[in-house]
Structures are given as structure tokens and as C-alpha cells.
Hints:
By secondary structure, chain A is an alpha+beta fold.
Amino acid sequence: MKMLVVYQKLGLHRFLGHLDLQRAMQRALRRSGLPVCYSQGFNPHLLLSFAAPLSVGIQGEREVMELPLGEPVAEQDFLRRLNAALPEGLKALQARLLGDDAAPAMARLEAAVYTIVPREAAPELLAAVPGFLAQTAIPCLRKTKSGERMDDLRPLVYNLLVKQGALHAVLAISERGTARPDQLLASLAAFAGVAPPRCAITRAALLDGRMAPLEDP
Amino acid sequence: MDQDMNRRLEALLETVQRPARYTGGEVNAIQKDWAGRTTFCFAFPDTYEVAMSHLGMKVLYEAVNREDDLLCERAMMPWVDLLEGLKREGIPLFSLESRKALSDFDAVGFTLQYEMSYTNILTMLELGGVALRGAERGEEAPFVIAGGPCAFNPEPLAPFIDAFLLGDGETATSEMLRVIGGGRRQGLKREDILRKLAGVAGVYVPALYEPSYHEDGTLAAFTPLVPEAKMPVRKRMELDLDAAAFPEKTPLPFTEAVHDRIVLEIMRGCTRGCRFCQAGMLYRPVRERSPEKLLELAKGLFAATGYEEMSLSSLSTGDYSRLLELIGSLNACFQDSRVSLSLPSLRIDNQLQEALTDTAKVKKSGLTLAPEAGSQRLRDVINKGVTEEDLLRSVTEAFENGWSNVKLYFMIGLPTETDEDLLGIADLAKKVVACYFALPREKRAKGLKVVVSASTFVPKPFTPFQWAAQDRLEEIRRKQGLLRNALNIRGVTFNWHDPETSFLEACFARGGRELSPVLLRAYELGCRLDGWSEHFNFQAWLQAFSDAGVDPAFIAHRAREKDERFPWDFVDIGVTRGYLWLENERALRGQTTPDCREGCGHCGLRRFEGVCPE
């Protein structure tokens, strides 16, 4: 059996990189005394997988990780023991016991919801959204290992709304293509003819192919 | 820090590399209320990754925070991006716990681990809003204190540090803080508090002593100015390590530290008497923690951190009297929770095979050996009691046990060294390679890797070589070239260090107060983070020496007369100057001195009752 865990990465913990977060979670699980599993081999590591890495500086409200368990633990019990070992900013919010045959969260992931709040008012940027979305293609420079290439961002932007001075975006995040919020911002700012503003970015949810929360399979 | 500053700091953090270094809030970090407490900021003069690898900081952080009337927070040297940002924004250098400026604390304490961190101290003081010179600090300013190995020759830092602690800090730090905090509450003047500090055992207050000099710049006299100023200043010692404070819940860094693991200090001090080794003299006598205490500490530290790795720390782990028992009980206790045990700086003579077999159960890291010199003659000069036979037996055993990585550490520029001694390093490396290939292919692990590292010898105070000259830079470069050619061997990699850093270390290790203007000038010329090669600016340092009118060669490259008065002579480390001179003479005759457990060598420590085991 395995446990799917929804957790947050808020406040100062937004400054953790993915590797930092991975290490922090693994160590918290080890402190908790929960029945975790380890890989075989000479340098055994704790088995834990994350649905989607989150960049340094971005907050997460409902992030998802999964781990196999060596013996059954009640969901509420699991939550209580893990949270006793976690700092408030990384609190676990929900635990769901799944069968071994449940598809991995990473494979089910299709999109993510982002809230992007400019730190200073950016009326031109927000006003440009309808025109931006009306484009048939949105060229976007992407850095790869072998250099740079132009990608089309348009099919990866599932939705983009302006609400109370903030951007709400649903962006693709899967093997077939991923759009990052900083790419969206850069493209939108270029379209609006302004410099990309500094923003507070939060990933509010991870979604599966039905556009339903990943934690409700 | 007010709200506006906090907001600007957080905006700044979004623009710098690895911001998690600056946020604090780690698991096990301690934040106490400031009201009614004496406040201490432990300032580590290097970056977070280095600081959080340092056991001493964790020890003192917990030792001070355990006291109800005291509190300890941490501050580190920011990386250049944040450093520039703080200056630009006018934000003072702050503590991680409550984001207070260094200037808000009652005391700020630096640990002096290596000389090349000294410009970072000036950087942190200025950025923290504290006047650089003690004489310029007002009644409100924090007391700046310092300790650690380099504090045993504190003179180059004399104008910048109000009080130095010489020796073990577990109890002395809190004593110093109570003198400072108590004095402030009584409304004593800064001057009077300094005099009281000078009365604490192990504490040296430089402003209360006056040096005078001969015409050639060497020290003529060193005079205490007030009755509280002791002469000599005797180091502090924690004689019972089981009773001494040891951290039980170390702050767990979010972003990886250089050494990110449980560290158990199993023993302090070393009885070997290697003649180049300052730590070996400074930290006498040898004191062990019991395996029972260590197991208890290890269990607690694992429960508090969840670390994956544990290492045993001491100057000579192989000499710990109950090593096998300790390794056995740690392995048994931590097998299920997958904590691997690593054993650094194992000497190559005793009990090695058993230890290797035991650790191999958990993790195979490389084997590190430190013969230090390439010939038996020179190993006798430095009293490194290890023979070629010992060494080759050890590596063969290691290869037989499935290890294929060996690191060999050497020094170049040792007293009396000849080219023949240097070529001995290459011979030794060849023989190590031959030991590997002498084993049948199916019995050895694949991928032989022998790394030979050669550092440059730095003569240090309180060693038998404190009278010795350091080789000039050209000579070191010539010797490195010689070795580079000789070590062009399949399977062997040769690493060497820039001699410029070692040259500056030699200056600051044995210099006196005349070096403080050099340090200040180098700082003004932009030197900081000198321990990071990408920021080290040797030309600026040479400029600083020249501007201050100090000849560095006179400090680094000059052999001293027997009776020359040294800047650090006022410190009593236990081992006497007479013994060090005797050892110096024996060294030059190539005569070895046995480990003091095999018979007292009369180093001077027995002058203190109950310090040495009979």
C-alpha cells in the first residue's frame, strides 16, 4: 500500500529548492518513526516521490507526494505523526491510503493552477491578457541542455484570468509539455511591451486529466 | 529589524542564490524571548554551508541556550550577492533567529578556525553596524569576543576583538556572557567590564596589555597594564567530556551544508606528538567520551534530525581506546534506520583492519591516509610514527576488503626537506598502485583511484616548528613542478594548493599586532571571502602589506633564534616552550619521540594536577 500526502510549502519555506524539500521531507519521515520503505543496495534511500518539483521562491498550497509503507497506518494517525516532525510552513494537510495498483500521481498529473500577484500594480500587463490569449501561437524562448529553442506556449496555457489585480493561470505540466509561470509572465510582459514585474507566485493546486485535484483519484 | 526592512529583505532574498541560507527557521533552531536575557550572537566568519558543518558552533549554541538567563542566535558571512544587496538597501547584517542587527546584541562572538577568514570578520562587523576597532566602540556597542584554534595567537586581531577565550568554550562562554550582561545591568562602564572579563580564567583582553619592540620589529616586552590582566593567560580545559555540554538537537539546515550529518566528538586531544601539528599540542591532554555516553547522544541526535549519516570526530580516531566496541554498538543500534557510519582521519597503524571490516557493512567511502612526508627520514623529523610497511599493509588490507579509492595527504616545504624526500612521495604512490595490482583481479574492486594531495607547510605557533622558516613561493612552485612530473603515474591524480594562501596563513599564524593595519588595509582594498579561490586577490594583499609598511617575508620566511620573544608567548597552553624547543632539536637530529601513552615525555601538562592520566 502507499500513502498520498498533500502538503503545503508556504512562507519562508518557499525559498527551499526541490532537493532541499526532498531532503527535509525524508528527514521528517525518518524522525516521525513512520513505517517507511528503503531502496535496496549499498546506499539505501527512503522511497518517496513528488508529483511535480516546485522552484525556489514559489509557494505551494496543495502539493502532492507519495510513499510506499511497510505496514498499514491510519490516515489520521499518519498525518498527526508526520506533522509532529514538520515545521508549520511544510505542514501536511491530507493523507490518503491508496492501493499498490493506483497509478502514480506523477503519471496522472496534467496541469497546475497558479496565482501570480504583481508586487507593484501592473495595469498594462493585466489589460493585455485578452489580446494575449487571442493569439494563435505564443513564441517562447526555452533554454535546454543543448542551447535555446523557440516553443509555442499557447497550447500549454489552458486558462488565464484576471481577478482583483492578480493573474490566475492553469498551465500544462505533463510529459507532453510544461509551461512555467515565469515563462508565462515573460511572454505576457513582452506582448504588453512592459518589463516583467516582480511577482509573488503560488501554486494553488495540481490537477489530473479530468481537471480535478490530483489527490482525488 | 522593522517591518519595512523585513519586506525589503524578503524582496532581496528572491534575487539571491540559495536564499534558504538566510531564512533561519530550521528544525531545532532556538528562538528565545529577548526580555531580561543577555543576548549573544555567534557569528561564523564564513558562509552558511561551512558554518553549519562546524561542530563547535552547534556545541556553544546549545550550551548557551540551555542557560535560562542567556540566549544565543546565529549569523554567518553572506555570499557576495546578498552582501552587495544589504549594502545597497542599507539593511544591517542580521541574526537568523530574530533578524536583529549584530549591533543589537550584548555580545558578538567569532570562531577563528582559519586565518583566511579574518577579512570576513571585519566585513561582518561593519555590515552588522559594529565599529571595527574596540577602542571606537561606545557604551551601547556589543562586546566582540572570539575563540577557536587561531585565538592562541590572537595578536593580528588585537584591535578588533575585545576579549579572546583561549581553550575549551563549553562553560567559559556562558561565564563571559554573564560578566558582560551582569556588568551592563549594574551600569558598569565598558572599560570596567573589560577588566572584569580579563579576570575570567582563559580570557585575554588585548587592550589591557602593551607590547614594545626591538629595532628589527621583533617583540621586546609584553606588559600587563592592570592587575586583572593575567600573565601568563592559561587556556581553559574541560576535563570530563561526559559531563561537558554536547548538542542534543542540532539545527537542521534546509539547504545542504558541506558536512550535513550527525557528528560525534569521541575524543579531544592527541598523544602522538607530530611536530607540525598545532592541534596536537593545543588540545592536550587526551580526553575520551565514553561509548555509553556517545550511544545515548547518537540516539538523541538521530531522533531530533533524521540524518542519514554519522561521523566520528577527533584528531586521531584510531587511538580511541574503545573504538571497536563503539562502532559495534552504533552499527547495531542504527542498522534498521539506515544511518551509515563514516570514519574520517583514521591513522594507519592500529586496529585498522577490524574497523574497516565493520564499516564496510554500511558504506564504502574512500580510505584517507596521511603519511605527510615521502621518506622515512623526513617522517622521523616530523615525528609521524608511521612506516612504509604500515602504510602498504593498510592499503593492501583496504583493497582486499573491497575499497579502491585511496587518498594520500602530504606536506611540502617541511623543515630539512630535500628533493629526495619529495621523490619519495612518488615512490610511495607507485607502491600503493602496485599493492592494488598485486591482488588477483577477482579479489579487488574495480576502478583504482589514488589521489595524492600536497599542501604547503605552514609553521604554526605552539609547535616544535614555531622557529622554522616557510619556503619561499618560488621554491614551493619548483617543488610542486618536480612532484607533478614524478607523479605522472597511471591511476594517480595529483592535487596541490596555491602557495599564496599558505604564505598569508604563515604571516597571520605567527605575526603580531603589526599585522592588524595590514588586515584593515586589505579589507579596505576589497578583500573578503579569501578562503574562496574565486574571491582571493593576492595582489591586493601584497598591496596591503606594502601600504602598511610590513614585510611579509620577515614573518613567513625567517628562521627564528632560540630566544626570540614570540607574540603568543603570554599564553600557557600547558605544553612548555622549553619542551617545544627540545622537540625542535630532536627533529633536526631526526630523532623520534614516542607517543606519550608509552611514557611521559614531560611536555609540561603534568604541572597541572589531575590533568594527565597517570
